[in-house]
Amino acid sequence: MSNVESLPRRILQSIIGFVRGWIESVRVKKRDYLVAAVELILAGLTGFLVAGIVLLVMGYDPIWIYSVLFRYGYSSPGYLGARSAALMMTGLAFSIPILAGVFNIGGESQLYLGALTGLVIAYYTGNIWLGLIAGFIGGAAWGLLIAALRVYRGINEVITAIMLNWTAYYLIIYIILKYLPNPTQSHLSIQIPENMMLSYSSTFWLAVLGAVIAYILLYYTDLGYKMRIAGLSPRTAVYAGFNPRKAILFSMLLGGGLAGYGGALHIIGVASAFDTTMSTVFGLGFAGIGVGLLGRNHPIGIIFASVFYAGLIIGGQFVELYTGAPPYLSDTIIGIIVIALAIPYAYRMMINYITLLRGGGK
Amino acid sequence: MKAVAKTVLALIVIIVIIVAVGGAYWYITSQGGGGGATTTTSPAKKIKVAILFDVGGRGDLSFNDMAYLGAEKASKDFGVEIKYLTPKSTSDMIPLLEQLSQSKEYSLLVLVGFLWTDALNKTADKYPDQKFALIDSTTGVVRDNEVDILFREQECAALIGVIASGMAYELGGDTVGAVAGMSIPPLWKFHIGYLFGVKYFEMKTNKTVNFLWQYTGTFGDTQKGYQTANQMLQQGAKVLYGLAGLTHLGMFDAVIDWNEKGYGSALAIGQDASQEWYNPKYIPISGAKRVDVAVYTAIKMVVEGTWKGGIHTLGLKEGGVGYWDLDGVRYFAEIAYNNSKTKLTPDEIVNIVKQQREKYIKPYVWDIVHELEQKIKSGQLVFKTPLSEDEYNSIIQQLQQGNLNAALEKGSV
């Protein structure tokens, strides 16, 4: 009983502890931060420079294009926040399993499943909260399937995830055409009524809530600690007496669940329905990989990364409107910038991974 | 903990960079007189129109490219300023409409394709001063600030029905078919028109024509289109009409294979945009659904002050539907050639199409086509638009029994 009472206190203490620890470490590790800052600035500048050269070669004025991209991408806070919600969740769906040593590129299909279950439950029960929970469960189940195949059958999760992405894609199209058609608009699925929809800002804050919970789970619980150890070194985990398999299963459950929750949020807060071309949800999971890397695989980092990324996507649309540049040009620019910013981190992550594998081999 | 703090700091730096860079550009551009902004406030007060494409945007060789064609023509004829925007997904549509309406920069927003229907329905009432034109779809609500432009598909399908029947006879057969998408209202109209055209040909020539019609249930499955087309070819179909979007590209392939593998000879007919470029030898003609004319019409209404909210339909009379002439074939052949979708040059394509049309569409067929065209244009014949599936089925049944007037709202043959 005392445990229940002290939970909020524990959380509060953790937050205080974290802030204190952070201030302490800033003081101690000044130099590291300087290096990190220089690295990011250099990466960012390189990205803008390379993209700028591409633009110049194609005959566009880079400064004009960048100014449109940033001015219109971040000028409408509601749209920006709502658009980043799903990206934030799929970013986590990539990063949490990475911390436990699993490559989850199935965020795409986990998001589809969550969006579907979220839509169906919210529509038929009339309760969006149940819909969001159902979204989490739907995504988690799909994620767990990939993890179970990896853990119990030794099937590489990358292959399973790629294949299941397309399975889910066609499954969803089939289901919405066959069982959930919209009676008034043939290109849509059943639709969340307008008065039930979440506002843009609550969509965003609900996503942030998800990220914060993920952060606490990962860094302030026993389970999160074990997951991170299992990811850093499965052998250490075994030596310390806990099962790395459990860590994998749990990380995929959490990652998949968050992707599903993101899908449900996207439907209930932004899109209101699927369309038969799937453009409502397509690509949100794949973009999540970039968001995860950009956020340095850290839940709080991912919050900012998703907003940054969403702004680029929104601004990209206006680049065509104001400069006449074809839409794939802004996609290219966004791609270059995101890759440049993610490369230093992704590079170090790979080096760690490889040295770990080598060390394990000896 | 240290890794955490490092990450957090790294992020703060990202944000600082973003703000700094964004702010700097903002400053630079606003200092520089705002580039485009000053030119728009010139005394003449140019009309500005934004064309909002379907998801996917230009290069589809169909709706979006046609919308571009129409808008460019309007810009040349009326001197209006045209801007284009491709939404990233359907979830971006509502916020985009809101942002553009709030900016009050555009006299008209043209929305291309049915994907915009729901988004428009939810935003149009909030911005009564913003004019919207929705192409090839309707919200079902009449508003002063919204124009929905629909097509009278029956009229174009009827002409194609006559042409297809004539081509089937030139190929030594008597069967025509169509590979259709889903059983939805626009396709019902195509079915009625196509069957009417076939029966009209029978009546004028006293020849009999077998009619095949198959719904594939999808607009996006080329494999299904291929299989369905193959079945029809085995049943003796000589001419196949594609009414299923991407699905009927599979139908084109089936027809091409049928000829090249020597099973027999057959021809295909495209729809919406000119699709002759796909294989001019075996696709000599396409039915036209002129999204360009629809976009042009919407802009014209704003320029000439003849704007009136509600549904407007375009048919043969307005040039909104029909079949593609050689200029249209050339326009799409050029886009296809520039996008490396075909190896044939536009000139080659146009020449092949011209030869094939002369070979397979005989003057007596053109006579029937022109006569029917005249009757429809003059308003002598008006087709019914079925409102329910039952009505549609009963019209088709009566047409098959030879009662052509069942398809007509006005006039008789």
Q: Could you please describe the fold and organization of this structure?
A:
The complex is a heterodimer of chains A (362) and B (413). Chain A has 14 helices and no strands. Chain A has 362 residues and is mainly α. Chain A has one domain: ABC transporter involved in vitamin B12 uptake, BtuC (Orthogonal Bundle), CATH 1.10.3470. In chain A, helix 12 packs across helix 14 (327-361). The termini of chain A are far apart. The model of chain A has no long low-confidence stretch (mean pLDDT 89). With 413 residues, chain B is an alpha/beta fold. Chain B folds into 2 domains: 44-151 and 293-305 and 307-314, Rossmann fold (3-Layer(aba) Sandwich); 156-288 and 325-407, Response regulator (Rossmann fold, 3-Layer(aba) Sandwich), CATH 3.40.50.2300. Chain B is built from 14 helices and 14 strands. Chain B has helices at residues 2-31, 36-40, 63-78, 93-103, 117-123, 153-170, 185-205, 222-234, 247-260, 291-303, 326-338, 346-360, 363-377, 389-400; strands at 48-52, 81-85, 108-112, 131-135, 146-151, 175-180, 210-215, 239-243, 267-270, 285-289, 310-314, 321-323, 382-383, 408-410. In chain B, helix 6 (153-170) crosses helix 7. The chains are: A mainly alpha (362), B alpha/beta (413). The interface between A and B is large, with 70 and 52 residues.
Name some characteristics of this structure.
heterodimer, A: 362 residues, mainly alpha, ABC transporter involved in vitamin B12 uptake, BtuC, 14 helices, globular, B: 413 residues, alpha/beta, Rossmann fold, 2 domains, 6-stranded parallel sheet, 6-stranded mixed sheet
